Amino acid sequence: MSLLIRIPLDSAAVALGADDVAAAVEREAAKRKMAVTVVRTGSRGMHWLEPLIDVDGVGFGPVTAADVAALFDANFAKHPLNIGKIAEHPFMKAQTRLTFARCGAIDPTSFHEYQAAGGLNGVGAAIMIGPAQTRDAVLKSGLRGRGGAGFPTGIKWKTVAEAKGETKYIVCNADEGDSGTFSDRMIMEGDPFSVIEGMAIAGIATGATYGYVYIRSEYPVAVRVMTRAIRNARAAGLLGARVIGSDHSFDIEVRVGAGAYVCGEETSLLESLEGKRGQVRAKPPLPAIQGLFGKPTSVNNVITLASVPAILSDGADAYKRLGMDRSRGTIPIQLAGNVKYAGLFEAPFGMTLGDLVMKIGGGTRSGRPVRAVQVGGPLGAYFPTGLFDTPFDYEAFAAKGGLVGHAGIVVFDDTVDLARQARFAMEFCAIESCGKCTPCRIGSVRGVELIDRILAGNSGPEQFALLDDLCSTMRQGSLCALGGFVPYPVTSAMTHFPEDFRKNVA
User: What are the pLDDT digits (tens) for 48-61?
Assistant: First the structure.
């Protein structure tokens, strides 16, 4: 009987040597004439243990190629790298894994393994209840867009379904560009069929017959895995003229972006998909009315779509019972930066920011005190430890001047200079702006100049007032969230860490 060893193909694990470990395992097995099957999987999300290998559910990590011979000598049992049953690890047991339930446990390109692990139950339910009830189920579940805006998915689907147009599209926004975020990449590399099934359900619900997965060029592994999974899904009948034998037609293709951050904004993404320069479109018309090639289009984030199958399979009520207030279901939280236990942690909305950083993340990797965390990517607000009692919830964060965004948490210790971080936000916007609107294109450049004057000590109180006024103009006048969200890191840094700005002021 062959020994089954699962080794991640996840980009984070590969960056830490997973490919070398896989090659070493195969060499060692051949040397010992042992029957070993190596299966490349997604990651379990415990990045501090990567490469983490799975032998019959028991984990070993972090493993290097040099450790492999000793693991064979120990017969993959008593060894210092043995962490016990992966499912029993405290980091895993504390989670509520719905979207990421299969990630790391199955071969991501095996349609058979996906179906055996509960795949297709959602699309089967959608076909049985029909388009209108499918939309109602998603709306009732409380699912909101996980890409950052938090717009109710059911309302978007209803708008597309009711829009006039013989051709309609589903676009999966996989242009994940925020710092400290990697959930989209992980699900595409670890469980791509969940995204494909979610898109098929969206097609049934809206009347769309074709979909595009727009993946950033920096994700070559995700592109490769998604492309292969789509081919396998088509061969198995999940995609094509008759979705799993029904009267619904739906197919998908992958498109690769060219590396522009602004193409994460839905209208810029649509421009890029059409072969144009990625620039923001003015709204209205909304993409749901007039989107890709002028047709009604539902643009949904990867995690949004991957969450849909569980809602249809388990029922809207089961999903809605999780979370708090208007933030329902689970959210894959990404812990990054200077944090001891970096990785992906899926849990219902409602855990406090402090619990996520200190209890789940273990505080800083450096061992120094936490000074600030940024939530929501490079344009998210900086929260001090005094706001660690804030629940992870869209409205709770908005009330404190922040945003959940794509649910990435970047941790900083007490050596960080928040004034320079604020400058980085303005500089980032100046570099990544599409140039379509003046507040973003010009305001970000002026913002860098203003902060440089403050940092050089060549300013008085009027410069702070001017910076605050500039942020207000960008927030209210920018065409999209790139310019509109830059004020979050800048004003939060000024509000919570004013000493970093004033240390050079006379």
Answer: 999 999 999 999 99
